[in-house]
Amino acid sequence: MVNINGNLVENSNATISVSNRGLAYGDSVFETIRVINGKIIFWEDHYFRLMSSMRIMRMEIPANFSPEYLEETILELVKQNDLINASARIRFTVFRTSGGYYRPDSLEIEYIVTSEKLQDPFYLLNSGAYEVELFKDHYITSGLLSTIKSNNRAVNVLGSIFAKENDYANCLLINENKQVVEALNGNIFLVSGNKIKTPSLKDGALNGVTRKQILSIVATMSDLEIEETSISPFELQKADELFISNVIVGVQPITKYRKKEFRNSVAKEVLTKLNVKARLG
What we know:
By secondary structure, this protein is of the alpha+beta class.
């Protein structure tokens, strides 16, 4: 089942308007959320990021969109789909109501919530081969709009096709200043000695929920320093480790970029602490 504007509907009966503004103009934002055994992981961060994204997109936030109401909405869908004792991926999509061509008739919104089962209950380390390359055909634009999860994802789609055609596990995206911004599906972290770098939001990096958790985790580790700063592509091959973060996989170590191969000891330690934080909530 899916939830459309507060109504549970069978998948086969779920429909949207052909004039849906998310489809027509990309006038939509979304959250990808992980639920484990009936508990939404890092729910507060997801909620406030969704509200922030809606405000940036000048969407009208309904009066009933409280944390409690949206949490109940998600968990009811999980329950109806028999995922309450499993691990599930939730996509909460918000779009402006139809009409108005480029200029909307209204700032009011509608929403869809979908769910699917995930195989693993908590984050597992994937230590298999994971080679990446820079995607240079198109750029992420630095600035506020690039930090939110909207469905304007043409660069990510084209980068994914490039990766598939060239047998890469993922690609790293750059902005118009030729700085590394993120991976196709998550934030990027670079480890050199005891220092960790991740691109700043000013460079156009996604304001990731897992990114925020990792920043918090590393800040408590006395043997490591972390910095949000611009990263040049030339730094990638000098790094000891590279890893990607997102809410579904947690931490994904990169094993190879061009001729450089990487270890994963810091990624493994961060992932362990991320699992603890997810359990304790």
